[in-house]
Amino acid sequence: MDLRPHRRQFIAASLASGTAMSLDWPTDRLWGQSGGQKSGAVPEVDRLHIKPQYHRWHVDPGVEWLESNTAAASLDWSIPLPQVALVLVDVWDHHYLKDTEARTERVIDENLLPLLTACRSAGLSVIHAPSPAQAMQHPNWVALRDEDQSAAPHDSWPPPEFRSKSGPYQAYRRPGEARQPELQQLSATRQLHPKIQPMAGEVVVATGSELHHHCKQQGILFLLFAGFNTNACILVRDYGTLEMSRRGYEVILVRDCTTGMESPESQPTLAQTKGAILFLEMFGQYSVASKEIIAGLPQQ
Predict the structure, then answer these.
(1) Which backbone phi and psi does 220 adopt, to 5 degrees?
(2) 250 and 223 Cβ atoms separated by less than 8 Å
(3) Helix, strand, coil % over all residues of the chain, rounded to 5
(4) Under CATH, which architecture does the 7-15+44-148+190-296 domain have?
(5) Coil, strand, or helix at residue 11?
(6) Do residues 239 and 269 touch, judged by C-beta distance below 8 A?
(7) Quick one: average pLDDT of 281-288?
(8) How many Å apart are CA 222 and CA 81, to the nearest integer?
(9) For residue 191, how far is the Cα from the chain centroid?
(10) Better-scored residue on pLDDT, 37 or 258
C-alpha cells in the first residue's frame, strides 16, 4: 500500500484547516526564465476546483474500529490548470462483449463527451492513451524515447519456459479457445472511437514512459483518468492508474466516465466496475464525478 509521506501530510493539513488547499504553481513553468514580469510578481493562472473522494480507513475518536464504520471522505483541492491532464485510456470504437460495448457507448455519450468538450474549452490538457500498436500509427503520437524500458535489465527468473508455459510447464497453460482467432481479429481492427478523436495539439502516447516524459516536459502532476475497461486497462496498463501513481503522480479516476468487464454474477450490479473504483479509493488514489470537474473548470 502506497502511503507516501506527502499525501499523509496533505490530508492531515487539509483536515486540520477545514479549508481548500491551494497548490503552488512554479512561475518558471508559465513564464520561463525571461518572462519579463516584475520582480516578485505572481502570475495569475486558471485553476480546477474539485473534491476528490477517497476511502477513509480511520474512524473518529470513540468509534469502534470496524470495516462497517469506515466510509468515503473527500478533500477540497484548487489545482493550477497547467498541472492537470485528462488521460483517455483505450476509448475504442467497439468491444467484443456486446453488453460491455453498450455500456461504453452510453458512458461516452452521456458523460465522457460533455467532459471532454468542457476540458477542451477550458484549455485543460488532453492525452490519448490507446494501445501501442494504435498509438504509434497516429499522427499525434509523441514518439518520445522510451528510456525506462530500454534500460530495464532482463531478469532470467522466472525462466522463459515458465513465463510462456512451454516445455515442462505446458500442463499449467490455460486451454485454448475455439473463438480466439475471431477475438484476435476483432482486436486487430479496433480504432479510436470516432467521437473521441485527438484534436490538433492533443498528444497520443503508447507507453507509460512516454506519458511520464510528456508530463515532465509540460509540468503536469495531476492525472484525471477516464476510459475503459475499469477493472483491466485503467488499472494495469503501464500508462494506467496504478503505474502512474507509483511514479508519483496524483491519480484521480473520473468514476462515471468508465465501465468494466463484468461476470454473470457481477453484471446486474456492475460489481466489478464499482469494486475497481473502490480499490483505487482505498489504496492511495481518488475518484471524482465528471459533472464536478465541469463545474470546477474556469468559466470562459
Answers:
(1) -90, 130
(2) yes
(3) 40, 20, 40
(4) 3-Layer(aba) Sandwich (3.40)
(5) helix
(6) no
(7) 98
(8) 9
(9) 20
(10) 258
- pLDDT at position 162 is 95
d(C-alpha 125, C-alpha 48), whole Å: 12
**Amino acid residing at 147:** E
**Alpha-carbon distances, residue 288 vs 100, 250, 274, 294 (angstroms):** 22, 13, 13, 11
Q: Could you tell me the residue ranges of all domains in the chain?
A: 7-15+44-148+190-296
Residue 133 has pLDDT above 50, yes or no: yes
CA 100 to chain centre: 19
* Chain segment 25-58, per-residue pLDDT in tens: 444 444 333 334 444 544 678 999 999 999 999 9
Give dist(CA 260, CA 210) in Å, integer: 25
Q: Evaluate the omega torsion of the peptide bond into residue 139 and state whether it is cis, within 30 degrees of 0.
A: no
pLDDT at 25: 46
Written as nine digits, the cell of 264 is 454473470
The rounded Cα 63 to chain-centroid distance in angstroms is: 34
Q: Which helix (H) or strand (E) holds 69?
A: none
| Residues with Cβ within 8 Å of residue 228, at least 6 apart in sequence | 89, 90, 91, 92, 95, 104, 107, 234, 258, 259, 260
What pLDDT digit, counting tens, does each position of 153-195 carry?
678 899 999 999 999 999 999 999 999 999 999 888 999 999 9
How many other C-beta atoms lie within 10 A of the C-beta of residue 105?
16
Burial class (CB in 10 A: 0-12, 13-18, 19+), 193: buried
All three cell numbers of 149, joined, read: 524500458
Contact 69, 59 (CB under 8 A): yes
Q: Is the pTM of this model over 0.90?
A: no
Q: Fill in the amino acid letter for 210.
A: E
272 burial via Cβ count (<10 Å: 0-12, 13-18, 19+): buried
